[in-house]
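Support case: nicotinamide-adenine-dinucleotide complex. Customer-provided input:
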Amino acid sequence: MSQFDAFTDFRMHGHSAIVTGGAQNIGEAIARSFSGAGAKVMIADLNGDKAKATAEKIANDTGNEVLGMACDVTKGEQIDACVATTAEAFGGISTLVNNVGWGKAYPDPLAVSAEEMVESYKLNTLAALNMTAACRPHLEQAANATVTNSGSLVGALPAFDFIAYSAAKAALNHAMLGLAHYFAKKVRVNTVLIGTVITPGYAEAGLDQKVVDALSHPDNLTGRAGRPEDVANAFLWLASPAGSWVSGQTIQVSGGGKRVRLIPDE
Ligand SMILES: NC(=O)c1ccc[n+]([C@@H]2O[C@H](COP(=O)([O-])OP(=O)(O)OC[C@H]3O[C@@H](n4cnc5c(N)ncnc54)[C@H](O)[C@@H]3O)[C@@H](O)[C@H]2O)c1
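Agent response - structure generated as follows:
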């Protein structure tokens, strides 16, 4: 039998993670992936009951410690409580995933109110900065400390129909790039630019079923929409020791993006 195990560096034993918005979909897949790799995981979600139920389900599947708690990441005192509870339960925090985010479609980008722009910024950008600030004392003491963010492809491409969301996700990319340089040798910071992963959130964002059906069959290089696990695998690489030479990056996990062809089909 081979002595070499290519997965050694992807294991996360000795790591303690917070995954925000981890009660469902992409966040749940990230929490499951980290837990399956050996990390202790706290699922911090607006929906505390769902966070606890998801944590229990994952812990049953992986045999590792997973907790869930209510935390609204737009509220400073709830962030502080989540960080204190996690650090006490796990003896530290090495790994932060800022996964909370949401965006609404607007038919007219110039009719979006200032309040809607600011609300989107608070949820998609500021919350991640505030979570990082609260975790900082723990991250700075941990080995292989990381902050990995759920960005969006629309934070890097023109997306006028999601103007509030795309502008806030673009700000997230830029702020996190700055933090990667600030933390330098102490904490690695990366952002995943996620493509289309169809979830019930698409209908809630104001898209009708015809649009969701079209998005389910995208013209990208892989020819399919993403699954939460496709995204979680990238987070595991970035947050585990396997990603230890990667920081300050925005990495697309999006089925390869839209297929470009110079000569049009007849
Ligand atoms: N699904 C996609 O196609 C897609 C594409 C690009 C980027 N993303 C990004 O990936 C991330 C996850 O997406 P998803 O589709 O799994 O989202 P989702 O809406 O299915 O789940 C988000 C979770 O966050 C929780 N949440 C919402 N507001 C919160 C708050 N204030 N505090 C704490 N928890 C809160 C919700 O309860 C929910 O459990 C988001 O940042 C999203 O912007 C998703």
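Residues 14-253 form a domain with the Rossmann fold fold (CATH 3.40.50.720).

Case will auto-close in a few days if no follow-up is received.
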